[in-house]
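User: GntR family transcriptional regulator, Paenirhodobacter populi:
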Amino acid sequence: MIVEGDLTPGERLDETVLAKRFSVSRTPVREALKALVATGLAEVKPRQGTTVSTLSIPTLIEMFELMSALEGLCARLAARRATGEETHAMHAVHARLIEAYERNDPEAFYAINAEFHDLLYAAAHTHFLASQTIALRLAPYRRKVTYLPDRMRDTLKEHATILAAIEDGNSERAQQAASEHVRLLGDHLSDFISTIPPELLT
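Assistant: Predicted structure for GntR family transcriptional regulator:
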């Protein structure tokens, strides 16, 4: 729920509420919260208890840089390992992204875009790398990127470049294209930061 952005930064993680929601006792919920704190997805605050982690701008930038490197590595491996069925599935999702763009539906675009990236990670055929990349998805923040001017249009172009490199088996080009797709530089970075509500930052 945190990774997908259903729980937002700063939101309190109440043991009782979560135990009731998932029909379990508080003990496994407590253990799960400890694990989330250990991975940095949650934090313990005085008088607030456990909450979804909020990030400072420098940390957020560092995480996007790491995300860029991980996505690039996934694409590099996908260019070497992806099956025809997997590239076909990515093309099908890309076609749905085009439809969402044409009807100017950023929420649908964001959700479909996540599907595209999940397929890219799967095509890398490396479970650990894929799991680490998914855990760093930064959903509450990446969702904001979708709303930047021309971002959906640029995403379509960048996905097409990634797909072409994967189909050509060009691992270096795939890695470069995927890394650049996620990386935020220059005006894109300042525009992105300006869209983040204060409550999502420390």
